[in-house]
Structure to design on (342 residues):
């Protein structure tokens, strides 16, 4: 995996189940815009009764007790529930289109709360930990901040000093769902919501490869992963998936929905064991456009990664790899969770 944390899944995005649960103010633009999956847009001179309509979260202008600028520690804030708990590797505070009304500084905090706490409980909760110290941001820019914390978090709180507008908040990391859910029976070992992620790929010209591991059916061709047209002979595109943990795969689904004239001609699945050796899960098999292909896998081998080879190039909507964890993987995940809760 590259050191670029933005290649990791966005754990807060709405399509993964994220939600903006609370904000102290949203006078000009709604807080829910923060986690929309698409990039922010802007249409000039689109005024509503509250002013220019922005595709982001925008608060009113704060004023101090004397009607002047507020005190230095005054701020607006919003609480976001991650779509799936996880280890956060970095955040992006995107102020796209906010040029004269962006906040000068921001900070980000995180907390781990089990169960389904209410908004009031989260607002009053103790234990919020700063993962991005108060820092300056630029307007109309994607402002990235690396996070150095091994802990598993469930919610983040975005603060902006003192007020203004933010278009999007991206929280990139590795999902760490509840172990009891993963132990309940066979599940999709590749799904982002279960802890899987794309570790590498051959090409991401048109769209992000993490899309193939997102929940649900793809909404359009743009909701999948599409490569550039490959012109070199005897080569092919591929995507490498890091499974939630070591497991035995028993079924797979390769979905080319919405890819009518640009789907791969064929595909194969190769498992990679913990020691780096490979095992064939699905030999090279013809793929049809706009089709959900389902295959039973009987290799019976425990693997930690799976490579999907697409021949020679093209696009995929979703990839599902169903199976069960090994006993060793369950023990390791249980130890990690107990360490996080300690």
């Amino acid at each position: 995996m590259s050191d670029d944390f933005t290649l990791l899944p966005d754990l807060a995005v709405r399509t993964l189940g994220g939600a903006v649960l609370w904000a102290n103010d949203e006078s000009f633009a709604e807080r829910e815009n923060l986690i929309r999956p698409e990039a922010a847009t802007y249409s000039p001179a689109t005024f509503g009764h509250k002013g220019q309509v922005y595709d982001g979260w925008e608060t009113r202008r704060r004023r101090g007790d004397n009607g002047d600028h507020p005190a230095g520690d005054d701020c607006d804030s919003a609480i976001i529930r991650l779509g799936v708990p996880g280890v956060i590797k970095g955040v992006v505070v995107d102020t796209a289109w906010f040029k004269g009304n962006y906040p000068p500084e921001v900070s980000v905090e995180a907390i781990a709360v089990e169960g389904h706490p209410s908004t009031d409980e989260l607002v009053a909760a103790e234990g919020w930990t700063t993962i991005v110290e108060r820092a300056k941001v630029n307007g109309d820019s994607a402002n990235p901040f690396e996070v150095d914390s091994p802990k598993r978090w469930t919610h983040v709180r975005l603060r902006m000093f003192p007020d203004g507008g933010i278009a999007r908040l991206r929280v990139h990391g590795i999902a760490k769902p509840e172990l009891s859910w993963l132990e309940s029976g066979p599940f999709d070992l590749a799904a982002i919501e279960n802890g899987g992620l794309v570790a590498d790929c051959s090409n991401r010209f048109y769209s992000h490869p993490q899309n193939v591991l997102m929940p649900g059916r793809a909404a359009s061709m743009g909701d999948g992963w599409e490569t550039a047209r490959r012109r070199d002979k005897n080569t092919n595109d591929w995507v490498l998936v890091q499974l939630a943990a070591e497991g035995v795969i028993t079924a797979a689904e390769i979905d080319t929905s919405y890819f009518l004239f640009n789907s791969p001609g064929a595909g194969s699945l190769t498992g990679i064991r913990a020691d780096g050796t490979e095992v064939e899960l699905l030999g090279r098999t013809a793929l049809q456009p706009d089709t959900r292909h389902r295959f039973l896998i009987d290799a019976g081998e425990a693997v930690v990664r799976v490579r999907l080879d697409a021949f020679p190039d093209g696009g995929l909507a979703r990839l599902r790899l169903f199976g069960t964890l090994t006993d060793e993987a369950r023990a390791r995940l249980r130890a990690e969770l107990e360490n996080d809760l300690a």
Observations:
- The CA atoms of residues 238 and 309 lie 4 Å apart.
- The domain at 179-328 is CATH 2.60.120.260 (Jelly Rolls).
